From TrEMBL:
Chain spans, region Disordered: 1-35
Stated name of the protein: Chromosomal replication initiator protein DnaA
Species name: Labeo rohita
InterPro entries according to UniProt: DNA_brk_join_enz, Integrase-like_cat_sf, Integrase_recombinase_N
Gene3D superfamilies, sorted: 1.10.150.130, Intergrase catalytic core
Length: 391
């Protein structure tokens, strides 16, 4: 994946920077869809508190729209769990005392919930609960000390080595049943295309979901030497920027081939896979979203982020099976970002350039959450070939 300064970025209009936009979802020709209706059980208490403070209705609506749609859905889910707990314990979820909140959190901690997830529960409760002792639930001294205690009792662990070997996956994707792509089952075509896009772009699933096939969003350079993909104009990334850079895929080992090895490596070219995927799916495509469902009653409709996450795991598992090896345990779709970014850094890519490509707000995010010991993974050098040593 290459970010080029000569590719004009999409700028967010000043008036749009504070608006929430939904990621691409659903079927049909209209790629953008209204933000999903959020559960009133979470938003109503928070909105009531803001209105009780004397704020106008339109101001309240703008404040409620400050969080990303995915965050609002997560809060709504966590709030429903807390509401249900309060009902069984005869407590008012909006006005209960801090002891009730702490009892709820302790029950979740004892059940195996991680301290990180507990913080999401606290944030969701804080958004809807009234102030306790003049402060929000999340800033209450006892709640803050509880979270610190939970982290000390159960410190977070992070794998320093990915559970899967990139070299094995790429080798598996180079043969049957993924090749030849022109005649492979559309399932294997989709899985291979999506994995190559994820591993070479460093993008989040939501960013990949925003890519589209419309002429204004997808352009192949003459000779298929590169492909330029812009997100749909209605897309707002998880980490907002003043500009939204396109994804630029460069062809890998393009023809004419000078050796059988070049021809073999060209099977991993993301531009080639993208061109074949767009051509083959055009006959039954129902949405301009780039990645669409390939089977069932939703065939041709826009794929959801959940489906795309399954695609990454399925691609890794099937690639391992194609090489005659057992699928790795505990596969996570998000691990592609750690593998790709860490390998790029190990091969000399500038840290800030990697962060800009991946959409991280600062290098600290990469170092803390995504940096992996790629040198401990045999064959990780293969990524250098597929990405042309660029970010």
């Amino acid at each position: 994946m290459v970010l080029r300064s000569n590719i004009p970025p999409r700028r967010l209009a000043v008036g749009d920077s504070g608006q929430e936009r939904s990621p691409i979802s659903g079927a049909g020709d209209n790629i953008s869809s209204p933000a999903r209706a959020l559960e009133p059980s979470c938003l109503a208490p928070e909105g009531d508190q803001l209105r009780d403070a004397g704020l106008p209705a339109d101001v309240v609506e703008t404040i409620l729209s400050a969080r990303a749609p995915s965050t609002r859905r997560s809060y709504a889910l966590k709030w429903r769990v807390f509401e249900s707990w309060c009902v069984t314990h005869h407590a008012d979820p909006v006005h209960c005392q801090v002891v009730s909140v702490l009892e709820f959190l302790q029950e979740k901690l004892s059940s195996g919930i991680s301290p990180g997830t507990l913080r999401v529960y606290v944030a969701a409760i804080s958004a809807c609960h009234t102030l306790i002792d003049g402060v929000s639930v999340g800033k209450h001294p006892l709640v803050a000390r509880f979270i610190r205690g939970a982290r000390r009792l159960r410190p977070p662990t992070r794998a320093t080595v990915p559970s899967w070997d990139l070299a094995i996956v790429l080798e598996g994707l180079s043969g049957t049943p993924f090749e030849p792509l022109e005649s492979a089952h559309v399932r294997f075509l989709t899985l291979k295309m999506f994995f190559l896009m994820a591993i070479t772009s460093l993008k989040r699933i939501g960013d990949l979901q925003a890519l589209a096939t419309s002429p204004s969003c997808l352009d192949f350079a003459p000779g298929l030497v590169k492909a330029i993909l812009h997100p749909h104009p209605n897309y707002l990334p998880k980490v907002p920027f003043s500009t939204i850079n396109p994804v630029v895929l460069e062809a890998f080992s393009p023809p004419p081939f000078t050796s059988p090895e070049q021809e073999r490596l060209h099977l991993l070219c993301p531009v080639r896979a993208l061109q074949i995927y767009v051509h083959r799916t055009s006959q039954w495509r129902k949405s301009e979203q780039l990645f669409i469902c390939y089977e069932g009653r939703n065939r041709g409709a826009a794929a959801t982020k959940r489906i795309m996450s399954h695609w990454v795991r399925d691609a890794i598992a099937l690639a391992y099976e194609a090489r005659g090896q057992a699928s790795p345990l505990e596969l996570r779709a998000h691990s592609t970002r750690g593998v790709a970014s860490s390998t790029a850094i190990a091969r000399g890519a500038p840290l800030q350039q990697v962060c800009d490509a991946a959409g991280w707000s600062s290098p600290h995010t990469f170092i803390r959450f995504y940096s992996l010991d790629v040198h401990a993974t045999p064959g990780s050098h293969v990524l250098e070939s597929t990405s042309q040593s660029h970010v």
